[in-house]
Specification:
- The structure holds two protein chains of two kinds.
- By secondary structure, chain A is mainly alpha-helical.
- Chain A has eight helices and one strand, in the order βαααααααα.
- In chain A, helix 1 (13-30) crosses helix 2.
- Chain A is elongated, with a radius of gyration of 20 Å.
- In chain B, 18% of the residues lie in helices and 39% in strands.
- Chain B has helices at residues 22-34, 44-60, 65-71, 206-211, and strands at 2-13, 82-97, 104-115, 122-131, 134-138, 145-147, 156-159, 164-171, 174-179, 185-195, 221-226, 233-234.
- In chain B, strands 4-5-6-11-10 form a five-stranded mixed beta barrel. In chain B, strands 1-3-2 form a three-stranded antiparallel beta sheet.
- Chain B starts with a strand and ends in a 7-residue tail after the last strand.
- Classes of the chains: A mainly alpha, B alpha+beta.
- The interface between A and B is large, with 46 and 56 residues.
- Strand 1 (2-11) of chain A pairs antiparallel with strand 1 (2-13) of chain B.
- Chain A: It is a peripheral membrane protein.
- Chain A: It is found in: Cell membrane; Nucleus.
């Protein structure tokens, strides 16, 4: 066995999640060979990886959402690796953004730029349902405070 | 954390599978060979020898699952990563049947999904346990991640009684002890990886074998993480409450 290119493309968690879900459906339909000796490894790795990925934000993503996200990211001038991490993790705080994006102090001189990036990420990428409730509650409070000007 | 790796290999299809579509047989063989594997890269000749040996053994055991599992321990492709599943087949060359062997051999160009996080990538895993060597983290499908003591949030100490690492977080009120308990979600940065060749070595001389102690079981692919930056560590440490 020869490796032609060990790094031919980066895959997002969503793409791998989709691939494994489709593979699972296919194998369920074809039925018979699933439990044979050699298939055990594939079954194990598929099950464990799907279990891990279904607890990440990629579970709620779709090709349209990913496309919309990448278009919106164009204006922020991030590297491919940084955009991939934002897509996979859906950071909700500035601290998390600073972990995934290098040299934020030099590239984002205004605090509003980081806020804008955070806003783009959280508005385009869907959240976990419980996270929605938490942020929904806190933004409701903020609105009450701002209320009467 | 996943990459596509382009590979090329010769796949052997035994005659009783000739009724199936070639693409399906090949996809199944490749997944059988590579999925969940961290095996050393070998020369093509050695591979097909090993492969045909496996098939003879598998035939004689009537696909006994336990035996097959023993023959396929979890292996990593050297310097590439943990293989997950086949992505697609890009090219199939002609299939040949060689004298003395009724099976067909086909050279296949394909792409495989491999777990191989890049350097400095941020990942979220679960704490598997703590030991004096550091904190062991697992992703479920991949277990060999270690965060050494020097890369923990400082100051850190190891609680011998509970066998757990603790971050002694300083505030005005005094030190808070934040425990790194098993099962907790942890965000960490990948700072190093190591590939170890675990293929069997040749027989050693009698004296060498007697004097050497039990060789350590090393994972073929392991990651080193760090949680020393703000935002890293247990997720519960950084959520806005």
């Amino acid at each position: 066995m020869e490796v032609k290119d060990a790094n031919s493309a980066l895959l997002s968690n969503y793409e791998v999640f989709q691939l494994l879900t489709d593979l699972k459906e296919q194998r369920k339909e074809s039925g018979k060979m699933k439990h044979s000796a050699g298939q055990q490894n594939l079954n194990t790795i598929t099950y464990e990886t799907l279990k891990y990925l279904s607890k990440t934000p990629c579970r709620h993503q779709s090709p349209e959402i990913v496309r919309e996200f990448l278009t919106a990211m164009k204006s922020h001038r991030l590297t491919k690796a940084e955009k991939l991490q934002l897509l996979n993790h859906r950071p909700m705080t500035a601290v998390e953004i600073q972990l995934m994006v290098e040299e934020t102090e030099e590239r984002f001189t205004e605090e509003e730029q980081i806020e804008a990036l955070l806003h783009t990420v959280t508005s385009i990428l869907p959240a976990e349902p419980e996270a929605e409730q938490r942020t929904g509650a806190s933004s409701a409070e903020a609105m009450d405070e701002e209320g009467p000007a | 954390m996943f990459v596509l790796v382009e590979m090329v290999d010769t796949v052997r299809i035994p005659p009783w599978q000739f009724d199936r579509k070639l693409n399906d047989s090949i996809a199944e063989e490749l997944n059988k060979k590579l999925a969940n594997k961290m095996g050393k890269l070998r020369l093509r000749q050695a591979v097909s020898e090993w492969w045909s040996w496996h098939w003879k053994l598998a035939l004689s055991c009537h696909h006994d699952p336990a035996l097959a599992r023993a023959l396929h321990p979890s292996k990593v492709v050297y310097n590439v990563g943990l293989c997950i599943c086949l992505f697609d087949i890009t090219r199939l060359e002609d299939s040949y049947v060689f004298p003395g062997d009724g099976a067909s051999h086909t050279k296949v160009h394909f792409r495989y999904v491999v777990f191989h996080p890049f350097l400095d990538e941020i990942l979220i895993g679960k704490i598997k346990g703590c030991s004096p060597e550091g904190v062991h983290v697992s992703l479920g499908f991949f277990d060999d991640i270690l965060i050494p003591p020097e890369s923990l949030q400082q100051p850190a100490k190891f609680d011998e009684a509970e066998q757990v690492w603790v971050w002694e977080y300083e505030t005005e009120e005094g030190a808070h002890d934040l425990y790194m308990d098993t099962g907790e979600d942890i965000r960490f940065r990948v700072v190093d990886e190591s590939f170890v060749d675990t293929s069997p070595t040749g027989p050693r001389s009698a004296e060498a074998a007697a004097s050497e102690e039990q060789p350590r079981k090393e994972a073929p692919y392991s990651l080193v993480g760090s949680i020393i930056e703000p935002g890293l560590g247990l997720l519960s440490w950084w959520t806005n409450s």
